[in-house]
Amino acid sequence: MDIKFKFPEGFLWGSATSSYQVEGGIENCDWALEAKNGKVPFCGDACMHYSNYKDDFDIVESLGHNAHRMSVEWARIEPTEGVFDEKEIAHYREVIQNLKSRNLYVSLTIWHFTLPVWFYEKGGFEAGNGADVFTRYALKVIDSFSDIVDDFATINEPMVWTSNGYIHANWPPFKRTIKKHVDILNTLAKAHNNIYKKAKEKNKDLVIGVVKDNIYFEGKNFLTKKIAKFLTWFWNDRFLDKVAGNVDYIGLNYYFHSPILFKSNGDRTDMGWEIYPKGLYHMLMDLKKYNVPVTVAENGIADEGDTRRTEFIREHIRWVHKAIEDGVPVIGYSYWSLLDNYEWALGFKKRFGLVNVDYDTMERGIRNSAYAYKYICEHNGF
Length: 382
Ligand code: BGC
Fold this sequence. Notes:
The protein is of the alpha/beta class. The chain has a single domain, classed as Glycosidases (TIM Barrel, Alpha-Beta Barrel), CATH 3.20.20.80. It has 13 helices and twelve strands. Beta-D-glucopyranose (BGC) binds at residues 18, 21, 156-157, 160, 213, 253, 298, 336, 343.
């Protein structure tokens, strides 16, 4: 087969996970606490990736990936305020070293949504010293792993987290307050900037970025175009503008577009999100202005039957290729997710994985689409 869409040499191909969604056995974070309070589904053993990671990475290797994105769990590393658990740090070092022994590029996310209970109960980022508490933890993570990871992302999806927790009230801490949402977004940006500066003072060669969830807001007429422009600023740019200058790369998470006051009839994923691959192109083009490398840190589909995933991946990657042709310095693509996992307030029903997880037996089953993606990874295009 001819390779029509060839990617630059060294392009990073992989998939992503996050600690709470796959590891299992995390009982001391806000989500576990709120599950006990009946407010979110139980996560329990999740995919048992904490103990099963070697077998899962065998699959990663067999699928031809050359990169992997993962996160560490704050509540494991700092189970008590200011006290770091060296055993858990050693565990994550083994996990990362396992990936490195397979020659994979490792992108480590420092914080992916969950907070240790002690921090949550003190008010989390609402507490006056929230930014400092997070900075102390993040610097510990950077110190502990900088010799073995390739890049760090301080924060995953600040807007999704602040919106679900402080506007929609469907994630901890279940509040509805625009003011706090705005304040906390500012706190997160401030924390990121602190972490970046302090870590770089110690070691200027570190690669530190953020992972940002951007939505393609689309208007069709004068008024809706204006609304789309405002929402683009509000949702996509506001946070990035605050950290610009303090990021070595931007990780873009792209899932869907948002048509403003017009009907759009594309096929939908099991999440009900309309599939709109070209939106990824627009989002990449919009990031050009920040003048740093960009990686697609997450892009994926909940598709239990695996009937649309191959096409979904190909179409999105085709638009990544076009963005590169049009001058965006895209360095990687990471499919969300390696495994089916705990989809937050929706529990285990949604299946995003390249790999199916049977939650009764914990058996893994590689989906056909994973092989289609393998072809792309191994040929650096398709
Ligand atoms: C998050 C993941 C989540 C995925 C699908 C992103 O918002 O980073 O944790 O599972 O999208 O909803």
